Amino acid sequence: MPFDFKKEYKELYLAKQKPAFVDVPTTNYIAVRGEGNPNDDNGAYTDAVQILYSIAYTIKMSKKGDHRIEGYFDFVVPPLEGLWWEEVNGKAAEGFSYTDKSRLHWISLIRLPDFITKSEFEWAVAEASRKKKTDCSKAEFLTLHEGRCAQIMHIGSYDDEPATIGLLKEFIGQNNCTSDIDNTNRFHHEIYLSDPRKTEASKCKTVIRYPVK
């Protein structure tokens, strides 16, 4: 059976609707940075997601080609993730507007298996660009050190997230902690367990994660 990150690391991906703390290990990702409204048709975010999946599936399907990756094992492509923030006077702010999404800054992510080194990542970017006839050069190999975090499962529309975030922040405060978003290694982090193109908005599942101290 292919390795499924969601099943093997349930504490990271299968959050409850009740907030909880989690220790997030250092993790490598395919990452594409950008800004602007993620809902814009044919916008930068749509292009970023296409790049991520092109590279992820190039790695997964390398087993059928001539290129051999040391330590390779078959895996289920992990869910799409995102880091989000706004900048105020050139500085990153903790919160952001859910009404004016044109001001959003983001890093779109898909987790990498541990067997992918930087050199293998570079091969995958070049191979995906060649096979898909898409420029994947915006992708980068990103390592995140999130550490101690609090997270919660949000079920519903993305625009309804503020109420869930309110519960998460209340939980953080009740446990004598504060959020520790620095927008370098520790961000407002979302993990998308549902495909919004195929799932009714009221049923979409999103893990919302905040770093704490």
CATH architecture: Alpha-Beta Barrel
- Can you identify the CATH class? Alpha Beta
**Helix/strand order, N-terminal first:** HHEEHEEEHEEHEE
- Report the oligomer: single chain
Give the low-pLDDT segments. Answer: none
CATH topology: Multidrug-efflux Transporter 1 Regulator Bmrr, Chain A
What is the CATH superfamily label?
Regulatory factor, effector binding domain
Which class best fits the helix and strand makeup? Answer: alpha+beta
State the distance separating the first and last CA atoms.
38 Å
Q: How many E-type strands? A: 9
Gross geometry: globular
Average per-residue pLDDT, rounded, comes to: 94
The largest β sheet comes out as: 9 strands, antiparallel
Number of helical elements: 5
Q: Please state roughly what percent of the residues sit in beta strands, choosing from under 5%, 5-15%, 15-25%, 25-35%, 35-45% or over 45%.
A: 25-35%
The total number of structural domains is: 1
Radius of gyration: 17 Å
- What percent of residues adopt helix (DSSP H or I)? 25-40%
Structure description:
- The protein has 213 residues and is α+β, with helices and mostly antiparallel strands.
- It has a single domain, classed as Alpha-Beta Barrel (Multidrug-efflux Transporter 1 Regulator Bmrr, Chain A), CATH 3.20.80.
- The protein is built from five helices and nine strands.
- Strands 1, 2, 3, 4, 5, 6, 7, 8 and 9 form a nine-stranded antiparallel beta sheet that branches.
- The longest helix is centred in the N-terminal third of the chain and has 17 residues, at 44-60.
